[in-house]
Amino acid sequence: MRDNGDSADKQTLRILARDRRRAFVAALDPLAHRLAFKVLPSPLARRIADAQVVALYMGLDDEAPAQRLAHQLSAMGKTVALPRVLDRLGSMDFLRWQPDDILLPGPFRTSHPEPGDGPVTPDVIIAPLVGFDRALNRLGQGGGYYDRAFARLPDALRIGIAWSVQEQEAVPADPWDLPLHMILTEVELIEGAAQ
C-alpha cells in the first residue's frame, strides 16, 4: 500500500502555505476578491474549447473560489461537475451541477450535488491546491483524493487554481504525483512547457 505523500516536508509546506494564503486573502481588497476567478483567460478557454465536462470545486475558507467560473463555463456549453467524496480512503467521483442547484453536505466540510443520473467523467479537472511551483507540481491537502482522480482519469486536463501567494520555490513530488498542465492565479496563467 502506498502512502499518500504526507512527508514531513509536505506537512511543513502546507502549514506555511495556508498561513500565507490566509494572510493574503484577509488583506485583499473585497472588490478584488469578488472579481477574482470570474473569467477564463483566452488561452485557457481555447485549451478547453473541445471539452464537454469540466469539474470545478467549491472553495472553502480562503481557497481560490473555482465555483465562480461555473457561469462562464455553462455559457460556453460545458457541463459543469463537482466532486463528491465517497469515503475516507481517497475515493471521489464527479456529479453534474448547475450554479443554482442545492448542494448536499459531504465529509470534510465538502458539499456536492444530488447524484441525479450518476457520476460523469470530466475532460477537465480544476483542482484546489495548497501550494504549487513553476514545474506545475501541486501540493494538495494530503488526502490523495485528487491524486487518485488524476491517476484514474489520465487523459483529463489537470488545472490548478490558486492565489499567486501560494507559489513555492519547489514542491516535493512523489513518484505517483502527476504534475498539472496549467495553473490559474488571480494574476496569470502558468502553462507547462510541453503543452
UniProtKB/TrEMBL annotation:
Transmembrane segments: none annotated. Keywords: ATP-binding, Ligase, Magnesium, Metal-binding, Nucleotide-binding. One of its GO terms (biological process) is tetrahydrofolate interconversion. ATP binds at K10, Q11, T12, L13, R14, R138, L139, G140, Q141, G142, G143, G144, Y145, Y146. Its cofactor is Mg(2+). The keyword Glycoprotein does not apply. SUPFAM superfamilies: NagB/RpiA/CoA transferase-like. InterPro entries: FTHF_cligase, FTHF_cligase-like_sf, NagB/RpiA_transferase-like. GO terms for molecular function: 5-formyltetrahydrofolate cyclo-ligase activity; ATP binding; metal ion binding. It catalyses: (6S)-5-formyl-5,6,7,8-tetrahydrofolate + ATP = (6R)-5,10-methenyltetrahydrofolate + ADP + phosphate. Its EC number is 6.3.3.2. It comes from the Bacteria. NCBIfam families: MTHFS_bact. Belongs to the 5-formyltetrahydrofolate cyclo-ligase family. PANTHER family: 5-FORMYLTETRAHYDROFOLATE CYCLO-LIGASE, ATPASE INHIBITOR/5-FORMYLTETRAHYDROFOLATE CYCLO-LIGASE. This is 5-formyltetrahydrofolate cyclo-ligase. It comes from Sphingobium indicum BiD32.
